[in-house]
């Protein structure tokens, strides 16, 4: 098996962080993640208007994940020679038009079809946006820059979804989808006009090397499996957090909502510190964050009746959730060779969504058979395995970097 090596041609990364470009990409992440989860927040309103059972509205979220899993990798390969700026802008525009179409859906089946189109665009956008952002950053800026971009996803959970839900309750669920779509269409136009080009330049056929010889594959495999396990552990427990708080911890509904706000606020804090951690401690930040997850899950499993422990553990879990995605994306971009960056970014999206699907299903079985405390215990074990894989990935990536630097030194010495 062979594949051409390639590099990203883009304007040289500036000495200062390109805040304007990164904020535009972060806004794209914000609106796409908000729209992804919107049917969950608008389930009663959409079900009543479209004349279906609320569970069928839930399928609009489940089908989304399935479509992302099935289309992200092939579409990433199909578009890898196209200017990344254009891919980002077009995927946002398609996403926008699909959301506007959802707003005018005359039936459930039409709404389902528009969600499939939006999910395809979402998968392409997420696979490309990290690679594109990385091409705008120097190595020393990578952690902070990617934390800013991926922070849009955390902001969507804490601010975007509640705001869109409130707008729907004041007006109509259709207004929420229409406003999101119009906003995304305007953002797509700004991205196309304002952001720099980023083009993959293929290497001549005679210089192609076998893909199996790419030394970045082993660390990427370790990080990828870790990403799947993280998604599995997260959704094993988070989907069933309300049963845990009510049944295992004995916390009233009113206080449960306050604790979920603490979780979200801690997630924003995690995003804020993730970039600095990734740049200052590139080998250990991700693994240390996952070990904090393990401690939080273990505390929730062992001491559900101790309210102060539950509060602190939820805050640690929330902060880790905010920090985890920028940290693992930064680790991937640092470990991957140029030709594998786009596929690495797409693969982590696919693997994380596989983990989400598996965790959501397995969490329901665990809760039904053993109670929600068991979910926390299993999540602690799964994340412990993931932390071992990220530590292994960091060691392998470091060895590859040393070998690459040595080879570069030899070439300079012979030139």
Automatic annotation (TrEMBL):
Keyword Metal-binding in record = no
**Keywords, comma-separated and alphabetical:** Cell membrane, Membrane, Transmembrane, Transmembrane helix
PANTHER family annotated for this entry? CHLORAMPHENICOL EFFLUX PUMP RV0191, PURINE EFFLUX PUMP PBUE
Highest taxon above the source species: Bacteria
Name of the protein this chain belongs to: MFS transporter
Q: Membrane-spanning regions, if any?
A: 59-75, 87-106, 112-133, 145-167, 173-192, 220-242, 254-278, 285-303, 309-331, 343-364, 376-397
Q: How does it sit in the membrane?
A: Multi-pass membrane protein
Output the Gene3D superfamilies linked to this UniProt entry.
Answer: MFS general substrate transporter like domains
Which PROSITE patterns does the UniProt entry name for this protein?
MFS (PS50850)
The record's subcellular locations are: Cell membrane
Query: Organism source for this protein?
Result: Microbacterium psychrotolerans
Residues annotated as domain Major facilitator superfamily (MFS) profile: 21-405
Q: What Pfam families does the record tag this protein with?
A: MFS_1
């Amino acid at each position: 098996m062979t594949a051409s090596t390639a590099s990203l041609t883009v304007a040289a990364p500036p000495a200062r962080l390109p805040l304007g470009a990164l904020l535009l990409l972060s806004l794209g992440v914000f609106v796409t993640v908000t729209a992804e989860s919107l049917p969950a927040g608008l389930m009663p309103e959409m079900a009543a208007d479209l004349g279906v059972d609320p569970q069928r509205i839930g399928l609009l979220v489940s089908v989304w994940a399935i479509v992302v899993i099935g289309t992200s990798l092939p579409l990433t390969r199909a578009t890898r020679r196209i200017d990344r700026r254009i891919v980002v802008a077009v995927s946002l525009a398609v996403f926008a038009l699909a959301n506007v179409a959802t707003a005018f859906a005359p039936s459930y089946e039409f709404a389902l079809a528009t969600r499939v189109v939006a999910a395809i665009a979402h998968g392409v956008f997420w696979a490309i946006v990290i690679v594109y952002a990385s091409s705008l950053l120097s190595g020393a800026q990578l952690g902070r820059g990617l934390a800013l971009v991926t922070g849009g996803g955390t902001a969507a959970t804490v601010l975007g979804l509640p705001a869109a839900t409130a707008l729907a309750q004041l007006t109509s669920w259709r207004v929420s989808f229409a406003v999101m779509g119009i906003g995304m269409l305007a953002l797509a136009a700004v991205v196309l006009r304002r952001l720099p080009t980023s083009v993959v330049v293929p290497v001549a056929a005679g210089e192609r090397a076998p893909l199996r010889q790419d030394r970045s594959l082993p660390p990427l495999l370790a990080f990828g499996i870790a990403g799947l396990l993280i998604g599995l552990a997260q959704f094993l427990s988070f989907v069933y957090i309300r049963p845990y708080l009510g049944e295992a911890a004995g916390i009233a509904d009113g206080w449960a909502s306050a604790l979920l706000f603490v979780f979200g606020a801690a997630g924003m804090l995690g995003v804020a510190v993730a970039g600095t951690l990734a740049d200052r401690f590139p080998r250990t930040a991700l693994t240390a964050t996952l070990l904090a997850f393990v401690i939080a899950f273990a505390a929730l499993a062992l001491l559900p009746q101790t309210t102060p422990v539950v509060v602190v553990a939820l805050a640690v879990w929330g902060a880790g959730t905010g920090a985890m995605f920028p940290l693992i994306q930064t680790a991937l971009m640092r470990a991957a060779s140029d030709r594998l960056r786009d596929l690495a970014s797409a693969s982590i999206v696919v693997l994380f969504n596989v983990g989400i699907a598996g965790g959501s299903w397995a969490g329901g079985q665990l809760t039904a058979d053993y109670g929600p405390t068991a979910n926390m215990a299993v999540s602690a074990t799964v994340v412990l395995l993931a932390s071992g894989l990220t530590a292994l990935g960091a060691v392998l990536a470091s060895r590859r970097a040393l070998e690459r630097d040595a080879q570069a030194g030899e070439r300079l010495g012979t030139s």
